[in-house]
Write a structure and sequence with these properties.
Blueprint lengths: L3 H4 L19 E3 H8 L3 H10 L4 E3 L6 E4 L2 H7 L10 E2 H8 L3 H11 L2 E7 L2 E7 L9
Antiparallel strand pairs: 1-3, 2-3, 4-6, 5-6
């Protein structure tokens, strides 16, 4: 069955046809987000499941939509500047004998910002504590 909007060229915020997507929908397909972040689509889907990326996924529909803002891009593209208040996820994992998934889930619950920064040749996740909640873990 054809999508009514697509078959009638009606603009929508949630169409994989970039020409028919409304420009200010605030969502990208997981493939588009992967291209912007320079990672695989599987990595975007994994980050969505971890809560690093927010989005929409209708079980009836295979497409994952990533909520994209300039702030998301700044935090996760890897070009951000480190702050002395940031703590690496890797260090928190070692310190508390937790998996990266557990540390990232905790950071999300507590309202901390998650950043992806270039460290040498690798990209690493860092947590910037929310102002009111104090240092991480």
């Amino acid at each position: 069955m054809l999508d009514f909007r697509l078959s009638n060229a009606i603009p929508s915020g949630f169409t994989t046809n970039a020409h028919l997507r409304t420009p200010h929908s605030g969502y990208l397909t997981s493939a588009e987000a992967a291209a912007r972040l320079e990672v695989s689509q599987a990595t975007v889907q994994h980050w969505y499941r971890l809560g690093v990326l927010r989005g929409k996924h209708d079980r009836r529909q295979a497409q994952l939509w990533i909520h994209w803002t300039a702030e998301v891009g700044e935090r996760l593209i890897g070009a951000g500047q480190p702050s002395r208040h940031m703590v690496s996820v890797r260090a928190l994992c070692r310190r508390h004998s937790q998996s990266p998934a557990a540390v990232l889930a905790w950071a999300q619950r507590e309202g901390h910002a998650i950043y992806r920064l270039r460290r040498g040749t690798a990209m690493r996740f860092y947590i910037l504590p929310a102002a009111a909640s104090g240092p991480p873990m």
